[in-house]
Every structure is written in structure tokens, then in C-alpha cells.
């Protein structure tokens, strides 16, 4: 199982009929088949928790993910990484890797949204199993659109390079004089 390091591309904090989601992107697109995005639908509260963690917001009292981070720290452990291991239908499965003070590594089952909320608070890396990317990732359509625009611009440039002044000469009958 190959693990791919991911970064958070964006958070959509939905409301009403719009679902909340977190979109992950491979840190190094060369390790995957091009530019991919991994959208994961999450709850509104979890989207807010991730967003607040990314903003390094400080609150008067700790929220749930802040509390868990503090408990892990007080017990002498650290959160070394989080991973998204598999996907079944639209459900993603993740874990949080803790390192205890004696060096033992412990993997704790977690929802991806909770794992990511902890990762942003502890600066822990986020990894996704390459099988999950193959199953659930989408192309980055912004990049696809940019590539298409560049291709069209090159085709137009190549066309302009083939033109000569004679292509623009028009005779008295309104037709091109080029034979």
C-alpha cells in the first residue's frame, strides 16, 4: 500500500441543501497520475472545526478537537500522522497515528473529518492510500481547463505563424488574390 502525502485544497462549509466537504490534493502531483483532487463529504460541524484549526483560531474554551489534542499531549503522546485508508461507497475510513512516550505507535480508528481536524491542529501530515485515490479522486478541472486553453492558444499561434501578407490581399471582386 502506497501512501500519498496530501494537503488541504479547500474547505466548503455548506448549509441548507449544500453539503460540506474537504478537498485534498496530493502534495507532489508527480507521484500520482496528474493533478487530482479528493473530495470528502463531511458534516457542517466538522467543516467548521477543520476551518478553525487551519485559521489557528484561539477560543475562550477548547472545542472537541482541541480537547482531544490536549488530552493526547497531557498523556505524553503525540499525533504523528493521519491516514485515509479505504473507501466503501461514499464512506471513507481513516486513522490517527499516535506515538506514546515509550515510542510505541498506536493507530486509532477515526472519521476522516476528525482525523483532519486533529492534523491541522497538530501540524501532522495527512496521508491517503493510493487505492483510495484511484477509486475516489477526480481530476483537478481547473488544471484540465488551463491545459485546454494552453493547447488552443498554441494551435492559434501555430496558425498565425503560417499566415503571409498575401493571405490578406483582396481584389476588386472581393475575393482573395492568393492563388
Layout of secondary structure:
Blueprint: E1 3-12, E2 20-26, E3 36-42, H1 44-54, H2 64-74, E4 78-88, E5 91-99, E6 105-110, H3 112-122, E7 126-129, H4 130-136, E8 138-139, H5 141-162
Parallel strand pairs: 4-7
Antiparallel strand pairs: 1-2, 1-7, 2-3, 3-8, 4-5, 5-6
Helix pairs in contact: 1-3, 2-3
Which structural traits does this protein have?
Bifunctional nuclease domain, alpha+beta, 8 strands, 5 helices, 179 residues
Whole-angstrom Rg: 25 Å
CATH architecture of the largest domain: Roll
Give the CA-CA distance, first to last residue: 64 Å
| Domain count | 2
> For the residues shown, what is the average pLDDT?
86
The shape, in one word, is elongated
Q: What is the CATH superfamily classification of the largest domain?
A: Bifunctional nuclease domain
Spatial strand sequence of the major β-sheet: 6-5-4-7-1-2-3-8
CATH topology of the largest domain: Bifunctional nuclease domain
Query: Number of helical runs?
Result: 5
* CATH class identity of the largest domain: Alpha Beta
- What would you call the structural class? alpha+beta
The secondary-structure element order is EEEHHEEEHEHEH
Strand content: 25-35%
What level of helicity do the residues show?
25-40%
Low-confidence stretches: none
Biggest sheet overview: 8 strands, mixed
User: How many DSSP-defined strands?
Assistant: 8
